[in-house]
Amino acid sequence: MAGIAEAPRAQVEPALRQPREQLYYLQQKTRQMIIAPKLPRIAVVGGGHLGRIHAKLLAGNDQCHFVAVADPSAASRDLVQSTLKLPVVEDFRELEHHIDGAVIAAPTFLHHEIGSWCLERGIHVFMEKPIAATTEQAHQLVVLAYENHATLQVGHVERFNPAWTEIRSSTRGESVRYIEAVREGVYTGRSTDIGIVMDLMIHDIDLILSLVQSPVEQVQAFGWQVLGEHEDFAVAQLRFRSGAMAQLRASRIAEAPKRSMSLYCDDGVKHIDFGTSQIVAIEPKQDVKSGERLADRLSAEDRAKVKDQLFEQWLQRTEIKPEAQNAIGLEHGEFIRSIQSGEPVTVSGHAGTAALSIAREIVDAIERSKHAATQIPMPIRIAA
After folding, report:
1. Is residue 373 part of a domain?
2. Burial class (CB in 10 A: 0-12, 13-18, 19+), 264
3. Which region, left, alpha or beta, applies to residue 329 given φ > 0 means left and ψ of -120 to 50 means alpha?
4. Which long-range contacts link 169-174 to residues 24+ away (Cβ below 8 Å)?
5. Which of 38, 110, 134, 219 is the most exposed place for a label (fewest CB within 10 A)?
6. Which of the listed residues 310, 326, 342 is the one where a domain comes to its end?
7. Which residues of the chain fall short of a pLDDT of 70?
8. Are strands 88-89 and 65-70 parallel, antiparallel or unpaired?
9. What is the per-residue pLDDT across 142-165, written as a single tens digit (0 to 9) for each?
């Protein structure tokens, strides 16, 4: 590709005499063949809204060398050049031999094709969610990454939300009994190649699976198709083998955006606002938790006072506001470190496949619910 210089080739080291030194030398050379140079060369495939966000952040990241944005649309390339002043190419294949890693922010139906091309060439991949259109395609990408010693990271960005990082460090997964998740937004016209389950609900699916590490045994769902060919609103219920249950709601036709989750645990409740990265934790006071003081043992007169004393004498309410951080930037940092050292990533191809698998089950359940609704017999009216 014209205008992009190749990385300098390593100098040939002199032969080493000692067997141990030779073995160490071979190990180091093998690692260098698998792991990219010190400053990884990274490109973005897809110049849409999210692709431009990735490109802007990567271009300003001094831990990597940003190469270009690849997009077949002339309008998208022009927008990248006019707003970000970054190099562009029409075909991602032009990037061969010029990149060590690729952030793929193309439409979902292209994820498998582009991801396979990269991984087959040993190019590390950061794949925006969902990892692929089907679980079979996702499994193929995971295998390709393994066979070619390449990183496969999936862009479930809420895993890097400071609020979620705090929750994961302070919450035992086995203590979670019930989860309510709401993820709604106004209609933007983006990501219309997929429905709301794959677009938004999959974020909460991934979060829940990472916390409640138990197999999902039952999926029930309902969806509402309004503005296009895919569902714009969906609700789903997941039941886990551990006994935990999760209720999820997602919409892209809401009046206002909302990203929240509530965890009902053995020791209290935690409400998460992903938009503000704020947590409200509520738990009983110690003597209430131990059973030493119970409201139903009070007189009727004293019980009537509990509502005014609830968060002073009975329940402890704590607001937690972690330090703000750029979640996408944190994803990039982890991707770069993985390219350089082989460090495992938080959201691996396996994790992305697991979230996709449950999302596909929800979409299938929505289709079954549509079919079932058409089979409900109409009540028989008997004339008077």
Report:
1. no
2. middle
3. alpha
4. 171/211, 171/263, 171/265, 171/270, 172/265, 173/211, 173/212, 173/213, 174/242
5. 38
6. 326
7. 1-37, 372-384
8. parallel
9. 999 999 999 999 999 999 999 999
d(CA 344, CA 331): 12
CA-based torsion, 272, 246, 194, 206: positive or negative: positive
Q: Which tokens is 249 given?
A: 């709601």
209-257 pLDDT, tens digit each = 999 999 999 999 999 998 988 899 999 999 999 999 999 999 999 999 9
**Domain membership of residue 80 as a residue range:** 26-157+331-359
In angstroms, the CA 14 to CA 73 distance is 49
Judge residue 236's burial from the number of C-beta atoms within 10 Å of its C-beta, 0-12 exposed, 13-18 middle, 19 or more buried: buried
Query: For position 355, which CATH number holds?
Result: 3.40.50.720
CA distance 364 to 357: 11
Both 46 and 149 in a single domain?
yes
If asked whether residues 128 and 253 sit together in one domain, one would say no
Residues 6+ apart with CB under 8 A from 28: none
pTM of the model: 0.85
